[in-house]
Amino acid sequence: MTTDQRPDFHAALNSLEETTMDMADRVEKMVGMAVRSLVTSDNSLVTEVISSDDKVDELYMDIRSRWMQIMARQQPMGRDLRMMAAILELNNTLERMGDQAVNIARIARATAGLPREETILAKLVEMGDLVKPMIRTSIDCFVRRDADECLLLPAMDVPVDVLNRGMWKHVVECGHDQPLLEWATRMVLVSRALERVGDQAVDIGEQVAFLMTGDHHEFTRYTG
Amino acid sequence: MPTRLEPAPVMVERMVSSDPASSPSTSLESAPVIFDIRGLNVYYRDFHAVADTDLDIHQNEITALIGPSGCGKSTVLRCFNRMNDLIDGARVEGRVLYHGIDLYGPAVDAVEVRRRIGMVFQKPNPFPKSIYDNIVFGPKVAGWKGNLDDLVEESLRRAALWDEVKDKLESSALDLSGGQQQRLCIARAIATSPDVVLMDEPCSALDPIATYRIETLMRELKERYTIVVVTHNMQQAARVSDRTAFFSVDVGTQGQRTGRLVEYDSTDQVFTAPSLKETEDYITGRFG
Lengths: 224, 288
What we know:
Chain A is mainly alpha-helical. Chain A is built from six helices and no strands. Chain B has a single domain, classed as P-loop containing nucleotide triphosphate hydrolases (Rossmann fold). Chains A and B meet through helix 3 of A and helix 8 and helix 10 of B.
């Protein structure tokens, strides 16, 4: 039976992890709302994504500040040190994922009055439907300390990459119509943003593997 | 006739084993092993202080022994230069090879052992003599025939104390600050040209600045000497050592406490991703 000799430190570390998971939940919702705003042209969703990102940025700064204090005061070691390293990575990754959601939402607002091409839109919705479970899986793996399930993430990322790589063909087909081409060109950026979010979910999976094993893992990624 | 303890470095290939307590799975270069300890058990009369310890100490490295109070780390340290011989009722079993020679062999001269394997203690303990006399005392006893002034200067320089005391060598060592006294004790230990310097919590009585000076000095000294340090300060072990041995204590049914080696690995590994949960619990403060 072990007794925690550093309860204050571990409470601070647990609190930091909870804040990080709060941030992750918000980012997951933001990505969903951003893709929905694209489909529905609902400006209130765009506004909500942007205001959610303000909160995510606030959490990002809060985590950085508390992270520095813990490192300076507590000098973590072993799995506590690995947790601190993983949290710092997650904090950066989640903040960037939030930025990608904002990029998508802003494009939704900017293109709201333009004609749309349903095939492209369907592909983007499909990408959104693929990356949201990736975010959830990566976060669940982190919470459960599940170094096995996070190995699924690179495979989950494959169809996202395939859809992103195929997007240009659909855009080219819009070349006959100037307003439609403008919309479609912006959708390439949306596709790219969703592809990055998928990669970032894989990055979180790599942090779970590091947390559990102490080894730095680079998951094999689709390059076809 | 005492056995001569000539330095005879024995190249020992790093053993590859899944047992983290006996052989480090380390990324360190395989430095020669100068202490080869197998099946070490130490008793103080009926009290079994340390059980079944296997440990290799590598040349020109700093090895830290860490663990909770009563885990036997200081007892193990004292086995390296037979300081336990001076404790009534102490008994050492097992094999302690130093450059391939059994330190506890019947023909080995314990005084010669302690000349080759010096020791620095927790509390600075200079002799109540001048700074100069503190340095020359050991070499004189050992029959040193060289130039004593040169020896004093060289020893004090190596201990990073020369510049502070060169103009007051005849002053009492007791007038020095705690940090200076400890560096004097290190200078005294290296004046006899040892091969190994053992340090038993050398900074526990010092302030942070003096502590950092000793730690810097340790890193300089390991170019010439092999250092084994017992410390309660895990951050210090992490800062200065190349390898770390974690000891723990088993409490028997009658409350008797016996120390044992749990894990031995490169310091990088022990403090970032130790192999055993028991080690991780200790370094992260989850124990007791």
